[in-house]
Design brief:
Length: 314
């Protein structure tokens, strides 16, 4: 029997490509735009798509693949995919939740501490010989004991809160789904959450429902001693308002793993010494990326075998 056709969009590691090649007639394309250059017969044969990346994938792209039945996303966040357009075409969407919770939460806490204790600058201080010349590194500020807010108490938000609780923090949160977590204080909106805490962690899902919801008003409520940590999506924050707040010292700092137009970064960020910048690497460990690839492939295999999908989104 002929092997099913699978189109894979995005940059995959060899450890993902090899098992896909073993099972399917694989057509890898580097980007969403490159899909338009695939031969018509390949597009017609493709019932499944392995999707990786953050470029928008909407109805126009889906229509290039007339027999598409599954978009298996590599990542927990599926905001790049227009799920309503997929629904309208009877296309199933899956994602890769849970396997990355620990890594993303670890990075969020690491960024928070690194920003407070200025770890990257301190490392440069040593490397540049400044310390050896006899100059002490300037004092920074404590992380433990702060009041912290989690915006979005989903799977990753909860892992972040659990870790922060071990740092003798007072945990506050705002969440659509969870209002009653013993020991942690619920807030009905983002402004009252930001007002109640020292530092604010963004862990909501991306997409139209949360776009721009961290406004200038939220940042002002956080105040001049506050730090914003974002491991969710750049779209959640009004980036212009954040840059203004950082430049004018209306908040103390930010630790950011995600940006609005990433991997392009607004050059204003690069001039700020109160912003710690990361290349969207929350899930970026070998262990987790392998697990994400495996879950993506397991969903594709379930689809072709007519079994229930493991982690359906719609
Ligand atoms: C995710 O899984 O959504 C991560 O942000 C990687 O895109």
């Amino acid at each position: 029997m002929a092997r099913p056709t699978l189109i894979a969009i995005g940059n995959y590691n060899d450890w993902d490509v090899e098992p896909m090649q073993a099972e399917y007639t694989l057509h890898p394309v580097a980007s969403v735009e490159a899909l338009a250059h695939l031969p018509e017969d390949v597009c017609a044969d493709a019932r499944a798509l392995a999707f990786k990346g953050h470029a928008p994938f909407g109805g126009k792209q889906m229509d290039l693949l007339p027999n598409l039945g599954l978009i298996a996303n590599y990542g927990v966040g599926f905001d790049a995919i227009d799920v309503a357009a997929a629904d309208a075409r009877g296309i199933k969407v899956t994602n890769t939740p849970d396997v990355l919770n620990d890594d993303v939460a670890d990075l969020a806490v690491a960024m928070w501490i690194a920003q407070a204790r200025r770890i990257p600058e301190a490392s440069d201080w040593v490397r540049s010989g400044t310390w050896s010349e006899g100059r002490d590194f300037p004092l920074n500020r404590k992380a433990s004991g702060r009041r912290v807010g989690i915006l979005g108490l989903g799977r990753i938000g909860r892992e972040i809160a659990d870790r922060l609780a071990a740092f003798k923090t007072e945990v506050h949160y705002a969440s659509r789904s969870e209002k009653d977590t013993p020991g942690w204080t619920y807030h009905p909106d983002y402004v009252s959450l930001a007002r109640a805490v020292d530092d604010l962690f963004i862990a909501v899902v991306g997409g139209p429902d949360t776009a721009g919801c961290v406004t200038a008003e939220v940042l002002d409520a956080l105040g001049p001693d506050g730090v914003l940590v974002n491991i969710s999506r750049g779209s959640v924050v009004d980036e212009g308002a954040l840059l203004d707040a950082l430049e004018r010292g209306r908040i103390r700092g930010a630790a950011l793993d995600v940006f609005q137009d990433e991997p392009k970064i607004d050059p204003r960020f690069l001039r700020l010494d109160n912003a710690l910048l990361q290349p969207h690497q929350g899930s970026g460990t070998g262990e987790t990326r392998r697990a994400m690839g495996q879950l993506q492939r397991d969903n594709v295999a379930a689809f072709f075998a007519d079994r229930p999908l493991l982690t359906p989104v719609n």
